[in-house]
Structures are given as C-alpha cells and as structure tokens.
Amino acid sequence: MHMSADLAISLNDKRLKIYELLKKGYSGERIAKTLGISRSAVWKFVEKLRSLGYEIDRNYNILSIPDPSPLDAALCSKKLGVERFLYFEEVDSTNNVAKKEERSCVLAKRQSAGRGRLGRKWESEEGGLYFSFEFPRKVPAVKAHRVTILIGLVVAKTLENFKAKIKWPNDVLIEGKKVSGILCELVGEELSSRVIVGVGINVKNELPEELKDKATTLKTYNVSVTDVFCSFANTFSEIVNLEWNRILEEWKRMLDTVGKEVEVRVGGEIYRGVALDVDEEGALILKCGDKIERIFSGECFYM
Ligand code: BTN
User: Fold this and answer.
1) Other Cβ atoms closer than 10 A to 293
2) 36-94, pLDDT tens digit by residue?
3) Nearest-angstrom CA–CA distance, 256 and 175
4) 94 lines ligand 1 (CB under 6 A)
5) Segments of 93-217 assigned E as strands
6) How many CA atoms lie within 13 A of 114 on its CB side?
7) How remote is the CA of residue 164 from the centroid of ligand 1, in Å?
8) Are 166 and 254 within 8 A, CB to CB?
9) Residue-wise pLDDT tens digits, 175-192
10) Considering only Cβ atoms within 10 Å of each terminal Cβ, which end of the chain, N or C, has fewer?
11) What's the distance, Cα to Cα, between the start and end of the chain in Å?
12) Distance CA 123, CA 205 (A)
C-alpha cells in the first residue's frame, strides 16, 4: 500500500505551463490571459505550489524552490518518454508505484522501504534522488539486461564530471565507492514485458555510519537533487535510441572492472579470477586459474 501522491500530473497538463510562466516572472493576470484560463485557476495552482514547499509572494514572484522541485522534475521527466509524473514526500518504494501506474515517472523525497537488488534494503533518507519510471519500450525478458546496462551507462554519464565509473554489471562508483544503484523489474509477459527502472543516487543524503567505507555521495560537489534528475533525463534521451553496439561500446569505455582481480557471487557460487573482458551482451569473461568463465549476472567485488 502506498499513500496518495503529493502531486500527480499528466505531462500535457496546463499547470506545467503555469509553472513555466511563473518562473519567467509573468503576473497572474498575464498567465491567465496567455493560457486562456481563469485567474482563480492560477491562484489555486499557486496555493498548490506553496503546499509543496515553493515560496511565492503576493505578486507571484517565486522566492525559493524546494529540492527536489516536483514541478521542474515533472518538466524534465518528458525526456524519459513517460506520460505522467507522480511526486511523493514519502512513499514505500517508487518502484512499487511505477509498477501500478502505466507510463509514469515516480519521484520521492524519501522512501520508507527502498529496495535494492537481491532483496536488500536501499537507504533512502531525504537528500538523495529516488525515482522510477517505465522504460518507453516493451522488452522481451531475455533482453532486459540491455536496459539495465543502458541505465548504468546513463547514470555514469550523468555523473561523468564527478569521475564516475561503472563496476560490472551496473553499480556506479566514484573513487571506488558506490554512489548509485539501479533496480530494473519486469512486469507482465515474458515476450514483451514492461520494464520498471528504479534509480537511487546519493546526492546530499546522510549515509549511515556502517556504509561510509563502501558508499559515497555527491555532497562535496554541491549539486541539487533536481539537477541530477534532469541531467539523467537529458542523458537518457540522448542515448536511449542508439544502437546496441554503440551503447555497449560507451558502457565498456566507462567500465572499471576489466583487468581487475575480482570475486563474483552468483547465487551460491563464488568465482575468483581476473576480469579479461565483457562479451557482446555485457557478460563478464573471467579467467579463473586456467578456466575461462562467462558470467551473465552476479555481484562483483574487487580484491
Ligand atoms: C541496488 O541494490 O544497487 C539497487 C538500488 C536501487 C534503489 C532505487 S531508489 C528508487 C527505486 N525504488 C526502490 O525501492 N529502489 C530503487
């Protein structure tokens, strides 16, 4: 069960236009005229913005914008190929909501039950970026790993200026510490599944003490949650339609695993060896003694 959204908006809703005009400094009267709506409709939406944490004075000047900014995020989410945007101050898990809402992007300020891979918990204090969206195409289950690789690449490119690298298969690291996690979940038919993409990025959230030697945030870079989200959405739109070979090539360029001595856990099994390469589907090629193993998915640790 999740609570109701603090904002649920279709991406062709006129309220997004109101917001854009407010940001441009238009008066209430001018907005109403421009959009062909009543002044009370403008007023009502300004009240809604105030309740979401925007500071707006009597003359409709925006004095401060919350972070994340639900309206800016909604505008940016158009680049993800979705039709609807939902924002929660708090929700159990944005993936859970996105599964139920077709073609949506779901953003939360914090999650009470954020989920990680392999049934783990994902720490989701305020200050981090937590969102999920439906991938714009349906995908056969056997190709779902390509979506995960694509999203890992999008996150890494989004954070490229902060020296982000990818640890196989799709953890994004900065200076060896995890800054982001991706959880893709399939819904529906095996031959044509909806893919729910969930992304968590540590932006300026406080990390629990026990995670501090494994995880990091973007705190020292002074970026806003909204900016990281919008830059993800822009990067996504630039690469989502590239051919698989191009994506793989770019992904390999940002991959930090090849050449390293690693341990990979796959279910109950443990492989130790040197990562030689990745194949044309992103599987890891590992030299374990004199055996060569090809590993499709698992959890990788650097030795
Ligand atoms: C991992 O284990 O590395 C994946 C973590 C994925 C976390 C994100 S946060 C937004 C979305 N909602 C969730 O419950 N999980 C994903």
Assistant:
1) 16
2) 999 999 999 999 999 999 999 999 999 999 999 999 999 999 999 999 999 999 999 99
3) 11
4) yes
5) 104-111, 129-134, 164-167, 171-174, 177-188, 193-201
6) 25
7) 18
8) yes
9) 999 999 999 999 999 999
10) N
11) 41
12) 9
271: DSSP letter = E
Q: In whole angstroms, what is the distance from residue 91 CA to residue 109 CA?
A: 8
Give the model confidence (pLDDT) of 149-176 as tens digits.
999 999 999 999 999 999 999 999 999 9
Q: Cβ distance 133 to 104 under 8 Å?
A: yes
Task: Determine the Cα–Cα distance for residues 93 and 114; give it in Å rounded to an integer.
Answer: 5
Q: Strands, DSSP E only, in 141-176? A: 164-167, 171-174
Distance 128 CA to ligand 1 centre (A): 11
Taking phi over 0 as left and psi of -120 to 50 as alpha, with beta for the rest, 240 belongs to alpha
Q: 157: which residues sit within 8 A by CB, 6+ positions away?
A: 235, 239, 250, 254
110 C-beta closer than 6 A to ligand 1: no
Q: Is the CB of 170 under 6 A from ligand 1?
A: no
Are the beta carbons of 235 and 157 closer than 8 angstroms? yes
